[in-house]
Amino acid sequence: MVDLDYLAYLEDILTENRKERFLEVLKNRTNHFTIAMEDVFQLHNTSAVMRSCEVFGIQQLNVIEEKFGKRIDAEIAMGAQKWVDVNRFNSVQSCMDAMREKGYQIIATTPHNDSCLIHEFDITKRSAIFFGTERDGLSPEVIEQADGYIKIPMVGFTESLNISVSAAIIIQDITNRLRQSNLNWQLTEEEILEKRLDWARNSIKDIKRIEARYYETNP
């Protein structure tokens, strides 16, 4: 549970415009969909996908670092790491297990013929959408255990897109359809409070000193 007194204490430091902006953005945030990236070698691609998640309202990004331990490229992410939750996993299986425990179906992005096109994708189910490496795509582990498959329609000679481009296209399509639907896709009240607290902390310089002062006066 969020400490409402502590939240009020931090939000008193913020401007009214900043607090209003938080509420406006949170209206369009969702955990109905989440994105998972499997061992992406090019660091800027992970950062670019994070930026797409933030821009189009996906709150959770899951990064599997089984082979390539990487830091988020702050320059490419353009500050998105302050507003998107990044969950890290050491293996593909642990990520898929965690997604299922949260009630998500596993959706693999692949150009295979049995994949449905993005405009045909059923948005009613909570889904974790997995993207693979630039060179090899998703691992057999994800392909074999996936509950469904999705692809972008392409009419040229090239069979694939850069992962960050693919992610941006798919995220924009499914989140736009979600916001136009009657589904209960928005964050819960508790999730909104949690994000208000996180974002307030991320917005305040010298937050550790501010926190220490609060807990000194509110033991």
From TrEMBL:
Function: Catalyzes the 2'-O methylation of guanosine at position 18 in tRNA.
Organism phylogeny: Bacteria, Pseudomonadati, Bacteroidota, Flavobacteriia, Flavobacteriales
Family the entry assigns: Belongs to the class IV-like SAM-binding methyltransferase superfamily. RNA methyltransferase TrmH family.
Keyword line: Methyltransferase, RNA-binding, S-adenosyl-L-methionine, Transferase, tRNA processing, tRNA-binding
GO biological process, one term: methylation
Broadest EC class assigned to this enzyme: transferase
Reaction catalyzed: guanosine(18) in tRNA + S-adenosyl-L-methionine = 2'-O-methylguanosine(18) in tRNA + S-adenosyl-L-homocysteine + H(+)
Domain of life: Bacteria
An example Gene Ontology molecular-function term: methyltransferase activity
UniProt cross-references to HAMAP family, sorted A to Z: tRNA_methyltr_TrmH
Name of the protein in question: tRNA (guanosine(18)-2'-O)-methyltransferase
Assigned EC number: 2.1.1.34
